[in-house]
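Flippase: structure tokens wanted.
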Amino acid sequence: MSGTTRLFQRFLSLLGPKLVTTLLAVIATPVIVRLLGPADYGDYAVLLSIYSLYMIPISAAITEGVQKFVAEQRDDAAWVERVLQFYLLLALLLAIVGSGVLLAVTGLGVAERVGEGFTRYFYLLTGFVFVGQFRAFSMHSLLGFGLERVNGPLGVVKKFVTVAVGIGLVAGGFSVVGMLVGHIAANALTAIIAGVVIARRISLRELFRIPDSLPYREFLSFNGLNIVLVLLVMSLFHVDVIMVRTLVGDRATGYYKAALSLAEYIWIVPIVLQGLLLHSSSTLWSEDRYDELAALASRITRYTALLVVLMAIGLGTLADRVVPLYYGEPFAVATTPLLLLLPGAVGFAVARPLQAICQGSGRLRVLIAAVGVAAALNVGLNAALIPLFGMNGAATATSVAYGSMFVLLVWASRRLGYDPLVDLRAARIGLTAAAAAGVIVGTDRLIDGDILALGVVPVIGLAAFALLAIILGAIDTDEIVEILMKLPLPPRVTALLPG
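Answer:
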């Protein structure tokens, strides 16, 4: 079985569960929004942003590191156990310190300065930090082992438990507290299950032996730089939400977060690719196979661009129907920030797989420089535009920063030694998008009923886009056949394919 085929199958192992997880999110989000209301949903969004940013120095020191180094083949027969031992001890230490600091800060009354009732929320965040650390360690360890078939379903379990417990408690009157308890329960359960799977694949005796030697300097160098990188990347996701809450208010934050959540649905496939390519590209980097890296990155970039452009056109066209139907009529004001966010979301979607491939090189300084420019642009533009234009200013600023990631990561890729644009076919993709947009928008205008439009427009849009992409050469028929041949189709269907 070729490396490309194995990679594709591992991609499918993650994609299926990711689609199920996204479906759960699609179903659960409007329920959560309606139960919480704009103000509490805004507070909940801010809490998740605070948690995500706070976890960076705690969790980023172990996640990509354990995933990368477990996947590598070293001469030491107990290499995997040594890596897991180092990162498990580091995870425990950072979890204790992180939880302790948050407890102390909360006890000093800092939480109440964020908003009314946040002291109670912060005490719950302390537990969330602790269990979230071990969920992150175990799930990334599974990826390092190449166990995408286990990691994917566990992601579904985590999402299901979160929304089931959370919605149940919110409906019972526990509001934001209920959602936080849902997160804690889901992370704890996922960590336990993943830990059992890992324990069955290793020697526990070797895990608890004192190692003779380990490349601590290599581990710590990668970890330290990765913390900086993740901090910069995560700031793109959360600084705008926190600034809107601080400068505009909780209701505006709820509307803005609703727009963000819809825009981020176009990242489904890029997120799966990003999770897969970090450890998958490490082997190519270690063997200096730059031509294969360029070919892999170029094809992934083109396919990702085609997919997310189609999704963005469809979502943008149907936005005025989708937003009020999905979130409720009061959230119709989120339509404008959604439209402003979509162009940048496309750029960031195409950039996400490139980020993982660059990380796989282990040379993070160039990547940090590129992402640092985007992060600085994000903070500066949000600070300038939010006071003037509120959540629409935040959407514009964030969209520009998101879009810059593609340009900056192409630059970083070339500095590292491979070109991800050797077969991009940008002009053909642009022509395909423009022609398909005419069909999609025209179809939408011909249909009055919202529900009917949501059923008809995506089908016609997909057919038109696919046909145009083939006619204009954005994708070749041979490539489509190659992809179909790798899918787990029934033998009768496969037999009908040429070649």
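Residues 489-498 have pLDDT under 50 and may be disordered. The chain has 17 helices and no strands.

Cheers.
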